[in-house]
Give the backbone structure.
Amino acid sequence: MPKLLVARAMFPDVLAQLSNFFELELNQEDRIFSQSELAERLQGKFGMICTSSAKVDQDLLSKLSGVKIISTIAVGYDNFDLHACTQHGVMATNSPDVLNETTADFAWALMMATARRVTEAEHFLRAGLWTKWSVDFFVGADLHGSCLGILGMGRIGQAIARRASGFGMEVIYHNRSQLSEEKELAAHHARYVDKQTLLRHADHLILALPYSPEVHHIIGAIELAQMKPSATLINIARGGIVDDAALIQALRNGQIAGAGLDVFENEPRFHADFLGLKNVVLTPHIASATERTRRAMVNRAVKNVISAVRGELPPDLLNPEVLEI
Ligand code: DGY
């Protein structure tokens, strides 16, 4: 039987399914492997199911032979060097689509919590500081009737935009390319604007673009300075898109009102100064974390490796060029 590395802890019933096709090497204690351990464990394997914590780059791939597929349980695949995968004859797959709505829900949860200062108010209450009600008590910003800006209008961005209809929000967006008229209509009449207009006009700005070196620190000191002092910034995309040090400065200086962050540069470590700020809502990369959606993501990753071992085309193949090699 071909061998498969399941690099992260996995639901037992999924392992039972996989064991019909593969001899499995497991990591049920869910350790994060170093690059050298990953290379060692991948020796002699047909493939691997992993998450964003596994860096699959030229260096790793050059130490392997015979690996046919690397399947990540994530829509984002910035941890894969696709070109190197192709060069080494490795199929790379992700788990798109099934998390769009859940991730959009969470973007809204973060936006609402940030705008209405939910975390800050709860900390205040828990600290036993609540002695009276006052007219300016934890006043925040409205969502209804405000302008929602979205940077990155892929499937998740569009799902976020659709939800704005219930709040009577105007939606503006910036993206590599403008959506079709039909898609804009479906995304609550989203209006395409340039990046500067997006920054200047949004009352709440949500980042929903994939990470690549080209968008590293696309939100930095210059961009933050263009936002409204009353604005909030929400990042459910990837760490590295925002310059976290610049964001901390902007939050300290009142250049923007607040930030809701699910992702961080160098996570799971993050800039310690975030902890000293009241105007942030911080969560540990959980935007797609519902039971149903995580199951669906895992199922997609499993389908990809099973298709590969059957000699079929994995449905979420990211580097189809590899088939020509
Ligand atoms: C994704 O699917 O990309 C999530 O961010 C989890 O990594």
